[in-house]
Task: inverse folding
């Protein structure tokens, strides 16, 4: 295993990006924003399954809260309509407030849990709410050959179908 | 010994070691930070932006200006010519109500036209690559240049099977209810329709503004029409019908405009009220996606069951913020999706045709071991060629030509920790010789970023990038940017 990286700045400086894993959206509940909690195999050696699932579930909970249809959202909607939506020029919507909470949460998770394991979460809002992008880093200073080999090996095992001739 | 054929590279010997048919080169389009540009300036869709990215509209805005003029002129005439008479004769509440309606109409119209309808940003190159790989696993593609089947994913929502389609332009799987607008060249969430009258798409984020606009416009039109008629009638009671028309000619114009627009606008409002109450989009209604005629089991999985909830959700539900971040600054290290203006986006088109079955290039023979590769670049300037040295002879392989657009190159003939150069070549249109097509950069072990291909024939024959360290076994993936492209891994050999 490459040596532990202790904080985000160190991670970005000393490590090099090996591969990225994408957690796709889960549309089984309709168009609301939910992400799949299926554990990607590339993270198998990097992080515990339970921690990962907990993070994704918390994120899903945040998004559900943002898109919740209930009394307060109706109130906000009616108020906005009554002012011909001019109120949006001065007020922040509930959704935007929750998105700020989410980015704070992701920052915190990165610092506490993911960076020490050489991983980095990207806020889904930067990727159009399509994916949670997890970047897997390899420590440049270590002879990361074995681990980078394994991660690129696992990353490339998916492409094996394409190069089947070999 | 020395390599024949043109060029300054005479001292450099390359023996090929590991080649494999490879296909498309992935060319992430890294945007250089040129004086802190904002993201709207490099937005890949066909949209127009104003006020430094605050306002977003479709490209064709002519009809929008017509709408604006019609509303402004008609309302202006109403307030100028009819209201003074009516305010005195009947009640001053008439101009006040008219004013409120007008204010509402303008507000909602501008909101609809200027806001982001819910555009989905295009996939970053890494995402696109990952998706392509997953599609390949699912399809079990074999090399051979066959057209891959259309890409769809099925998902079950509320008991109904919904097909998610892959968008070749945006390189994403479209979420349910999203659609690609061909006029704006964007995927839009909950796409309703593209409305030329408001000069924008109508989608998830601006549907309620659109609905409020047509609703308030119907009220305004009916209001103006009714009171113009009242005005004329009252006047004609005093002075006779023809004199009344002569006294206020504006009323005639207003009446005509209102008469012709009221049918379509009120009809449209009624139609959209029906759509909202059943939680469908215009797109779905036209296609009959959820109609009973398709089958008894067919129902709308997005509907909440009762009309009241559907209306409340559509009109008073939460508004998601814009995903495209128009006014953000471009970060130099963030990969930007390829803009359609450069050659890389042509990949989207070539990929769907995927006629990448490369026939044998006439006259080219596989380079036997130890022979010299010839990179004819007649116009390559001599001073650009770096000096190479031989440090050992590696075994070479034949050139393998590009066969399909989804292969990757396996470099496991390279000894662990060795250096190699990547050559991407394409035959010149009129010659048999191969020309160097592009340069490359090392990004990390086993990863390459390929920059945009230069046009064939330019003076680039000797443009070598830095050689990289490939830790075998490494895999390099490529996406096609050109047909008849050859990728080879060359090992430097030292003197």
Result:
């Amino acid at each position: 295993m490459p040596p532990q990286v202790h904080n985000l700045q160190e991670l970005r400086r000393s490590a090099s990006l090996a591969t990225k894993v994408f957690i796709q959206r889960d549309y089984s509940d309709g168009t609301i924003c939910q992400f799949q909690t299926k554990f990607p195999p590339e993270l198998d050696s990097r992080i515990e399954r339970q921690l990962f699932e907990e993070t994704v579930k918390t994120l899903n909970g945040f998004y559900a809260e943002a898109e919740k249809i209930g009394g307060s959202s109706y109130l906000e909607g009616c108020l906005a309509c009554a002012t011909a939506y001019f109120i949006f020029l001065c007020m922040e919507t509930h959704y935007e407030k929750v998105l700020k909470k989410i980015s704070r949460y992701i920052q915190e998770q990165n610092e506490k849990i993911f960076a020490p394991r050489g991983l980095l979460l990207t806020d889904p809002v930067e990727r159009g709410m399509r994916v949670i992008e997890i970047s897997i880093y390899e420590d440049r200073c270590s002879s990361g050959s074995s681990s980078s080999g394994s991660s690129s090996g696992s990353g490339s095992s998916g492409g094996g179908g394409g190069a089947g001739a070999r | 010994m020395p390599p024949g054929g043109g060029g300054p590279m005479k001292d450099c010997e390359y023996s090929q070691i590991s080649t494999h048919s490879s296909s498309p080169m992935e060319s992430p389009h890294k945007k250089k930070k040129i004086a802190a540009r904002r993201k709207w300036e490099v937005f890949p869709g066909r949209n127009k932006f104003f006020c430094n990215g605050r306002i977003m509209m479709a490209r064709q805005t002519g009809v929008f200006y017509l709408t604006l003029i019609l509303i402004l002129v008609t309302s202006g005439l109403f307030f100028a010519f009819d209201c003074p008479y009516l305010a005195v004769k009947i009640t001053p509440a008439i101009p006040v109500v008219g004013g409120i309606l007008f204010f509402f109409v303008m507000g909602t119209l501008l909101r609809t036209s200027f806001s982001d309808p819910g555009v989905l940003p295009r996939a970053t190159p890494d995402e696109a690559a990952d998706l392509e790989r997953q599609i390949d696993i699912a399809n079990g593609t074999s090399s051979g240049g066959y057209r891959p089947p259309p890409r769809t994913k099925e998902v079950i929502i509320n008991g109904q099977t919904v097909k998610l389609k892959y968008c070749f332009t945006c390189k994403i799987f479209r979420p349910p209810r999203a659609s690609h607008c061909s006029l704006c060249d964007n995927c839009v969430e909950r796409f309703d329709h593209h409305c030329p009258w408001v000069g924008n798409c109508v989608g998830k984020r601006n549907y309620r503004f659109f609905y409020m606009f047509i609703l308030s416009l119907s009220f305004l039109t009916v209001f103006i029409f009714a009171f113009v008629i009242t005005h004329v009638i009252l006047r004609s009671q005093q002075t006779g019908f023809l004199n009344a028309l002569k006294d206020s000619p504006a009323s005639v114009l207003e009446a005509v405009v209102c008469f012709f627009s009221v049918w379509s606008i009120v009809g449209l409002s009624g139609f959209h009220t029906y759509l909202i109450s059943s939680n469908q989009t215009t797109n779905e209604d036209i296609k009959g996606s959820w109609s009973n005629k398709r089958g008894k089991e067919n129902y709308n999985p997005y509907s909440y069951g009762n009309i009241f909830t559907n209306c409340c959700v559509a009109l008073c539900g939460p508004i998601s913020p814009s995903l495209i971040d128009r006014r953000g600054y471009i970060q130099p290290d963030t990969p930007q999706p390829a803009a359609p203006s450069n050659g890389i986006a042509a990949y989207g088109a070539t990929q769907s045709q995927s006629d990448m079955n490369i026939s044998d290039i006439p006259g080219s023979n596989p380079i036997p071991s130890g022979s010299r590769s010839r990179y004819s670049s007649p116009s390559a300037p001599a001073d650009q060629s770096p000096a190479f040295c031989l440090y050992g002879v590696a075994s070479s392989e034949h050139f393998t030509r590009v066969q399909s657009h989804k292969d990757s190159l396996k470099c496991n003939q390279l000894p662990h920790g060795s250096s190699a150069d990547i050559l991407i070549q394409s035959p010149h249109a009129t010659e048999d010789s191969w020309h160097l097509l592009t340069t490359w950069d090392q990004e990390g072990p086993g990863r390459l970023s390929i920059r945009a291909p230069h046009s064939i024939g330019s003076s680039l024959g000797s443009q070598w990038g830095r050689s990289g360290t490939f830790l075998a076994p490494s895999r390099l993936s490529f996406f096609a940017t050109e047909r008849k492209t050859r990728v080879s891994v060359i090992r430097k050999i030292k003197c």
